[in-house]
Design brief:
Strand content: 35-45%
Largest sheet: 12 strands, mixed
Length: 468
């Protein structure tokens, strides 16, 4: 109980600190072919990866900026640092991590979380992973959980076979950018029939002003395996923008089950532009549980392509925009390419303080996909007249026998609920937090207790100052 009390007593400001870290490498601002080649050279990568990066960079130059979704006009690609590596070697024990970085992650609770319930943990600081550990029992079962740079060095054949097969560099402009300058991220490989009972976790932190973070995560679940991966993201507050543009690829093979949970709490000067996609093969299940609280702009639409019969997808998207100029443009995509596949999408959003939330989703049913069932539900909560919410559901149904439903609601906090709680002696601000937490309960029920406590605390912090 004491650890839970400690978490409850923490406040939002613990994420807003800058660290005085020495850097082994820190490239100048700006993007060019030379920068891309330099990143590959510093890392000592094989020639095929250098070619992959250059191919992606050339496509990035050709591809126009998206003209839909959030406002991307203020992003200056030449005012971003594309690679920074803190001094010190990559560590496998907490004691080996450089002191300044250790202090930062101690304040975020990384070590405590690992000791409590995590099977493995990785921590990425700016461009590079600084700490990584996997329980011995998992290693003995053949589970691989390392950063993606290490995977490229130690398991090049597996990486070469799978990287870019779910999300190729040509997929979109920001996937191309990530493919050109990626660094760090997580590589997870679960052998056939192995079930990882406890979550694997990674934590990503931007510390450098005008920093771009471009981690690349690849998860491969062999037939009949099972894994739950959790990521958290934070950054201190600067007066100028930072860019986070990750790519996540999941390959869920026959009969496997993969759950990917995100708790994103970037500071409100970060552009969070992420591409996340999974392929679910025969009888596989993929679950995205995704919460977005921070950032200036988030554009993120976790997708499941059901490429095998009886594959299942469950996507839970939660977004909160709590200040003027903040825009959470989030949602989900369920693409049914095989018969008898099933999907369920649930979106929950809260807008306050002049913030804006958007649900942007797609359900696609191919002509050959018989017996498809899909359910979409979007619930939006507006806390004041200055905030906004939008819903853009796209339905591409190419079969008459498909069963597809869509339900959307927009509401405000009822005065009677607020009055009832306040009549019981609860201050108005706390009463609002309780109602919002109740509205988002579907998310907190899906995550481990420690994360649920932290999520509720973050919501409470976001609600501060929302009254009056």
């Amino acid at each position: 109980m004491s650890s839970t009390k400690e978490i409850m007593q923490l406040d939002y400001s613990r994420f807003d600190f800058k660290d005085n870290v020495e850097y082994e490498y820190k490239l100048d601002k700006g993007l060019s072919r030379g920068v891309v080649e330099e990143i590959s050279r510093i890392k000592g990568e094989p020639e095929w990866m250098t070619r992959f990066r250059i191919r992606a960079y050339e496509h990035f130059l050709k591809r126009a900026m998206p003209n839909w979704g959030g406002d991307l006009s203020k992003i200056d690609f030449n005012n971003i640092i594309y690679y920074a590596k803190a001094a010190g070697k990559k560590s496998t024990t907490w004691e080996e991590v450089p002191q300044e970085i250790k202090k930062a992650y101690d304040r975020l609770g990384i070590t405590e979380a690992e000791q409590k319930f995590l099977a493995g943990v990785g921590a990425q600081y700016d461009s590079e992973v600084v700490y990584h550990n996997v329980q011995k029992a998992l290693e003995e079962k053949g589970v691989i959980f390392v950063d993606t740079d290490t995977a490229l060095a130690k398991y090049p054949d597996i990486v070469k076979k799978h990287l870019g097969t779910v999300i190729p560099p040509e997929d979109n402009k920001f996937a191309a950018l990530n493919s050109a300058v990626w660094s760090g991220g997580s590589f997870v490989y679960i052998p056939e029939g192995v079930e990882v009972q406890m979550p694997l976790q990674a934590y990503f932190r931007i510390n450098t002003q005008n920093m771009g973070q471009f981690e690349r995560t690849l998860i491969i679940a062999e037939p009949y395996s099972k894994v739950h991966y959790i990521e958290g993201c934070t950054a201190p507050i600067y007066s100028t923008e930072s860019l986070h543009s990750a790519v996540v690829e999941i390959i869920a093979k026959k009969g496997s089950k993969v759950r990917y949970t995100t708790l994103q709490n970037w500071s409100k000067d970060v552009y969070n532009l992420v591409t996340k996609r999974a392929y679910a093969y025969e009888d596989a299940t993929v679950e995205w549980v995704d919460a977005n609280i921070g950032s200036r702009l988030t554009m993120k639409y976790p997708s499941v392509y059901m490429v095998g019969p009886r594959a299942k997808a469950y996507i839970l998207s939660v977004a909160m925009a709590s200040s003027k100029g903040q825009h959470q443009d989030a949602g989900a995509k369920a693409v049914h390419l095989a018969p008898n596949t099933t999907s369920r999408i649930v979106s929950k959003s809260v807008s306050s303080g002049g913030g804006r939330t958007t649900y942007r989703g797609l359900v696609h049913v191919a002509k050959s996909a018989v017996g498809v069932k899909s359910t979409v539900r979007c619930d939006a909560l507006l806390l004041d007249e200055h905030s906004g919410t939008d819903t853009y559901p796209y339905m591409e149904i190419n079969r008459e026998d498909a069963t597809v439903t869509h339900e959307a609601t927009v509401g405000k906090i009822g005065e009677e609920k607020l009055f009832y709680l306040m009549s019981r002696g609860i201050p108005e601000e706390d009463a609002l937090s309780m109602i919002v937490n109740g509205f988002l309960e579907e998310f907190t029920k899906e995550i481990p207790l420690e994360y649920a406590v932290e999520f509720n605390r973050l919501i409470q912090a976001e609600m501060k100052g929302s009254v009056g």
